[in-house]
Amino acid sequence: MSFNLKPRTFGFLVGTRAALAFGLGLLVASRIAESRRRRLGLALVGLGAATTIPAVRMLRKSRTPAPINVNGARADFGFVSPL
């Protein structure tokens, strides 16, 4: 299986996953003042969690079937007719 993502969709997926990861990192870090770090971390984790379902839906819509391989020849190049 492969995915055909538009740049905008790819950016959304990467950005929301990065926000989630950065938020979790802030929650476990100790270099920033705790009240500020906690507020920002929870906001980013909330954003990442809230966008998980739309991100999964976008990813599922972008799936394309895998090409058929017959003895090493890929059907999408016209060497083999699909079954």
Side by side, the strands of the main sheet go 1-2
**How many separate helices?**
3
Shape: elongated
What number is the mean pLDDT? 82
**SSE run:** EHHHEEE
Gyration radius, rounded: 20 Å
SSE order and pairing:
Blueprint: E1 2-3, H1 7-28, H2 34-50, H3 52-61, E2 63-64, E3 69-70, E4 73-74
Antiparallel strand pairs: 1-2, 3-4
Quick recap of the structure?
With 83 residues, the chain is mainly alpha-helical. It has three helices and four strands, in the order E-H-H-H-E-E-E. The protein is elongated.
Could you explain how this protein is built, in words?
By secondary structure, this protein is mainly alpha-helical. It has one domain (2-66). It is built from three helices and four strands. The protein has a two-stranded antiparallel ribbon with strand order 1-2. Strand 3 (69-70) and strand 4 form a beta hairpin.
Which terms would index this structure?
83 residues; two-stranded antiparallel sheet; mainly alpha
